[in-house]
Structures are given as structure tokens and as C-alpha cells.
Design brief:
The complex is a heterodimer of chains A (143) and B (146). With 143 residues, chain A is an all-alpha fold. Helix content of chain A is 69%, strand content 0%. Chain A is globular, with a radius of gyration of 15 Å. By secondary structure, chain B is mainly alpha-helical. Chain B is built from 8 helices and no strands. In chain B, helix 7 runs antiparallel to helix 8. The relative contact order of chain B is 0.18. The chains are: A mainly alpha (143), B mainly alpha (146). At the A-B interface, helix 2, helix 6 and helix 7 of A face helix 2, helix 7 and helix 8 of B. Chain B: This is Globin domain-containing protein.
């Protein structure tokens, strides 16, 4: 399921719109993660405040979205450019890769919510494919 | 039996009240485009060769309405979805031979359609209620498979 030229341009276009609202999107994604899939909070047992406005959620929401935006820039070379992030997730954070699918679903959902006219079925499939490749690249160092 | 809180019931009824009749069509179109292998179940529908063909296909539109009516059955029988859906489950298993994993794919597309329609009104709590409802529907549809 590789990205063709149309997929790449769809991904670049929607994330260009998303970039100025990166923190807002990240906060929405994480809020949904913690509310709809409460087991994901287990990775953040050191946090004090899981509410949407908290400093922790805002900071981490931005971190996650900045990672995604970096992946958009490095789309042609994900496995190499995400190597250190893969090592982080594999050896330090040890996030079960099943959660990558969960966060991807919520990224798609928030994009649909905030950009309903832009998130057409064609853009949806391109972003879904792209996020699947990001998830694969993040899993590279796991075992 | 599934336990629904009052808030969850209200969320589902509210969403249902706000959904346009085209929601089923939109969800099905999205499913056929985003997960093209699902087209295997619609070989009698004519051309599904590209996104434009799928979007303008009248049989897809009609079937979207059928699916939405089916979902409406679950909305109206929230305390009894498993029994309500038993005949539908048999149909999908014995006659249509649909891999139940596809129910999840269509369910996700419905969720995206609802989110796009409601925007910020689709809060995290409402999303939780909706996804719980979709999961119950999917389980009921898969129940009669053997």
C-alpha cells in the first residue's frame, strides 16, 4: 500500500492547513484518546492532569503533531528519518504498537471534524495510507 | 445486555436526530474508496472503477440508505440490539458471506462522517458513546457467524 503522487500531494495539502493549528489538533487527538480509550492513559501515569486545557496535554499534543508534520516533510524516506523516534518508542516508551492505530484513527477523525470540506474520501485514503506508513516506520526497531 | 448511561442514550439519540438521510450513502462511499477491497461485495453494482464512479453510482446511494435504516433499528432498540439484529447477522453470514472485519471498516467510516457533520459538537464524550454504540452494533452483526 505505497503512496502515489496524488497521495503525497493530498497529504501535504491537508497538513499544510493543519500546521498552524498543530497544538489545537494535538489536544483534540489526545483528549479523545484519553476519553474514548482510557487504557492509553496508562502510558502517562506520571501526569497530574488529563483535561484538555492542561499544560501536559497541550505540550504533548504539540509534540505529537510536530512529529507527524516532520514525517510529512520526510515522506519519501520515513524509515530512515523516523529511526530515532522508533528507538524512543521501542526501547524507552515501549508503547504497544496497537496504539498507533488508535491514535491514527483519532488524527483522521479530528482532521474530518476541523476540515470537513477538505477531508474528502480521496484525502482520507491518502492520509490513512500515510499514517499506516508512519506507524510501520515507528515500529521498525521494536524487535 | 449492554448497560447504557442516560448520557450515552441521549448522545446516540441526539446524533441520530442530526444525521442527514445521505449519511449512509456518504459512509458507504467513503468505505468503498478508503478500503477498496470492500468492493468485492458489490460486484453487481456496476462501475466502481474510481472515486468519481463510486460517488455517482445509484446502487451505492440506494444501498447507503438501506444501511442507514438498519442502523436506525439499533438506535430504536438500544436495549435489545443483539436480538434485533439476529436475522441481519444470519443474512450477512449465510447469504452475503461478508467478513465481519468489514463491519469495523464501515463503522469507522460512519464515525468519520458523523465527526465531519457535527464538527466540534462531536465532543470526546459523545465520540465515546457513539463508538461504544457502533461496537455493540458490530458485535451483534457478527454474533450469528459460525
Amino acid at each position: 500500500m505505497s503512496l502515489n503522487a496524488k497521495d503525497k500531494s493530498n497529504v501535504k495539502a491537508i497538513f499544510a492547513k493543519a500546521e498552524p493549528r498543530a497544538e489545537e489538533i494535538g489536544v483534540e487527538v489526545l483528549s479523545r484518546l484519553f476519553t474514548v480509550y482510557p487504557q492509553t492513559k496508562s502510558y502517562f501515569s506520571h501526569w497530574k492532569d488529563f483535561t484538555a486545557g492542561s499544560a501536559e496535554v497541550r505540550k504533548h499534543g504539540l509534540t505529537v503533531m510536530q512529529g507527524v508534520l516532520r514525517a510529512v516533510d520526510m515522506m519519501d524516506n520515513l524509515n530512515t528519518s523516523l529511526l530515532s523516534l522508533s528507538e524512543l518508542h521501542a526501547f524507552k516508551l515501549r508503547v504497544d504498537p496497537a496504539n498507533f492505530k488508535i491514535i491514527s484513527h483519532n488524527i483522521l477523525l479530528v482532521l474530518a471534524m476541523l476540515f470537513p470540506d477538505d477531508f474528502t474520501p480521496d484525502v482520507h485514503v491518502s492520509v490513512d495510507k500515510f499514517l499506516a506508513q508512519v506507524n510501520l516506520a515507528l515500529s521498525v526497531k521494536y524487535r | 445486555m449492554v448497560a447504557w448511561t442516560d448520557a450515552e442514550r441521549k448522545a446516540i439519540q441526539d446524533i441520530w436526530g442530526k444525521l442527514k438521510p445521505a449519511a449512509g450513502q456518504k459512509a458507504l462511499i467513503r468505505c468503498l474508496i478508503v478500503y477498496p477491497w470492500t468492493q468485492r461485495y458489490f460486484s453487481s453494482f456496476g462501475s466502481l472503477s474510481d472515486a468519481a464512479a463510486i460517488k455517482s453510482n445509484k446502487k451505492v446511494a440506494a444501498h447507503g440508505e438501506v444501511v442507514l435504516k438498519g442502523l436506525g433499528l439499533a438506535v430504536k432498540n438500544m436495549d435489545n440490539i443483539k436480538a434485533t439484529y439476529a436475522p441481519l447477522s444470519v443474512l450477512h453470514s449465510e447469504k452475503l458471506h461478508v467478513d465481519p472485519d468489514n463491519f469495523r471498516l464501515l463503522g469507522d467510516c460512519f464515525t468519520i462522517v458523523v465527526a465531519a457533520h457535527l464538527g466540534r459538537a462531536f465532543t470526546a464524550d459523545i465520540q465515546a458513546a457513539w463508538q461504544k454504540f457502533v461496537a455493540v452494533v458490530i458485535a451483534a452483526l457478527a454474533k450469528q457467524y459460525h
